[in-house]
Amino acid sequence: MRYRALFFKPAPVSVEIIARNDAFRKSYWNDVANIHKAGEKIREGNEYFKIADYEAAAAYEQAYEFGDKPVGGFKLADTYEKLGQNDRAISLLENMIQKQQLSKLGIQDAKEMIDRLLTAKAQE
């Protein structure tokens, strides 16, 4: 009789819990795949950037869209700057700040870059 507490009936699992778990699992693996794709696009963009092929901004744009907002965004802003598209770079950085996609240091870096871009734009 004293061992009866060791044997318990498991709680029933509802269909709703299973469905939520499946949705979470799919969402999780989708996020993992997007992070992997973003990393690939950043590496691809880095190769283009090294050889000064700034028209390869598309790789950074794709990384940004796949979800790597801070890294993809800064690299994309750098590329826009090299292309002389300062307005696009400023708009992107301001959007990243507004949508809270950056850490405190990221915000500081973005503001410094915006100041640099505005100075370059004023000198044109």
Write the layout of secondary structure elements.
Elements: H1 15-50, H2 57-66, H3 69-82, H4 86-98, H5 104-122
Helix pairs in contact: 1-2, 1-3, 2-3, 3-4, 4-5
The SS-based structural class is mainly alpha
Radius of gyration: 23 Å
The chain-level mean pLDDT equals 77
Count every helix, treating DSSP H or I runs of 4 or more residues as helices. Answer: 5
Helix content: over 70%
Short recap of the structure:
The protein has 124 residues and is mostly helical.
Keywords summarizing the entry:
mainly alpha; 74% helix
Write a structural description.
There is one protein chain. With 124 residues, this protein is mostly helical. The protein is built from five helices and no strands. Helix 1 packs parallel to helix 3 (69-82), helix 2 runs antiparallel to helix 3 and helix 3 (69-82) packs antiparallel against helix 4. The mean pLDDT is 77.
